[in-house]
Amino acid sequence: MAERMEPDTDAQDVPKWVYKLFTGRAYPFVRRQAKFAKTAQPGEDRPEPTPDEIKAKFWEVYPHCWLKVLQEIKVGMIVSFIELGRYEAGTFRELLEHPEEFLAKTYGKKKIKLNFYLGENFVCTQNFKVAGWVSHDDGNEQGMGEMGNEQGTGEASNEQGAGEAPKESHGGT
Fold first, then answer.
1. What is the pLDDT of residues 93-112, one digit of tens each?
2. CA–CA separation, 130 and 132 (whole Å)
3. CB under 8 Å, gap of 24 or more: what pairs does 3-8 form?
4. 3-state secondary structure 46-112
5. 0.70 cut: is pTM over it?
6. Which residues are CB-neighbours of 22 under 8 A, at least 6 positions away?
7. Is 135:173 a contact under the CB 8 Å cutoff?
């Protein structure tokens, strides 16, 4: 069982890695939201948020976030991402509880990126090398693992046309 982060005894808990991802310094979305919720006098900087203010803002933001699952594909020097699935807010608990197992079972041996969003706003990302993935030569098979995309929205997002997966190019790794 994953370590938990509980805001208090009556609220739903989340794996500790998720809380750290959302509130750490690498992805400042939640911190900035907490900072800009504070009042500031004209001409003065806003004070940094306290740990309790960050925690409160996390519990405002996290329950409304949705998740995009992307596969990293590298061709030559170009890195791009194809979308494997989307999960609406509140529908990805099993994925967060046991990410490696869930991703391997659902999508197979791949390098996967989980992007979290609040509405259209990017919040944070986490990368996984799934099911023993070691190189792009080893895991560039596109598409789903054993189960297809029966999880999440129930269908693969395919806005570009029949048989063509949507791509996101982010240059670099």
1. 999 999 999 999 999 888 99
2. 6
3. 7/55, 7/56, 7/58, 7/59
4. CCCCCHHHHHHHHHHHHHHCEEEEEEEEEECCEEEEEEEEEECCCCCHHHHHCHHHHHHHHHCCCEE
5. yes
6. 29, 30, 58, 61, 62, 116, 123, 124
7. no
If you average pLDDT over residues 2-22, what whole number do you get?
A: 69
Q: Does residue 151 sit in helix, strand or coil?
A: coil
Phi, psi for residue 17 in degrees, rounded to 5: -65, -30
In the structure encoding, which two tokens stand for residue 17, read together? 């890695």
> What pLDDT, in 10s, does the model give residues 98-151?
999 999 999 988 899 999 999 999 999 999 988 777 666 655 555 544 444 333
At 66, list the tokens. Answer: 């949705």
Q: Where are the domains of the chain?
A: 13-63, 65-169
Q: Residue 88 burial by CB count (10 A; 0-12/13-18/19+): exposed, middle or buried? A: exposed
CB neighbourhood size of 167 (10 A):
13
